[in-house]
């Protein structure tokens, strides 16, 4: 999926996500997701560069203002920069781009995957800024139960692919879901699907499984 293609799944919403990345307004998990997307999809980089240029021009057009106690503040900035400890190098992984390897702190082969559903494993990262981030490993042909969302869900495909009501997504593609979308993603046949998903609210089950759960709990 290429930005600015309104006919593509998530066309305008992907533009908004990339613009947020350029403006530096995304949550840390979403920032890492988009950085990984840009690593895998060079065609999106020109859109981000254009947004960054627009932002830079807007700053240039703003009237300059004096900074109180300028010298002391600059000295404090330089002093803090000298104390920054270098980060350890991120693991090298053929599945996860460097921005995600740095966040996960390990290669896919080293991740302690946990059972989620038959054919589905997950690895939760620590929550940040009100968002949850999860890596999913889905066996070929497996389907996630029908659900919608109380907020947004942004998913980056790292290996294989999946389809849902909004389209077909492969390595490097971003799928965006919200409360208006009710879907049951299905992994492609022939290859495991590994995804990185960021959500800002819980999902809500729909369909037969939701009705079964409601009968069990009496709601």
UniProtKB/TrEMBL annotation:
Residue ranges annotated for the ChrR-like cupin domain, each copy included: 107-199
InterPro entries the record matches: Anti-sigma_ChrR, Anti_sigma_zinc_sf, ChrR-like_cupin_dom, RmlC-like_jellyroll, RmlC_Cupin_sf
A family per Pfam: Cupin_7
Record's protein name: ChrR family anti-sigma-E factor
Organism annotation: Alsobacter sp. KACC 23698
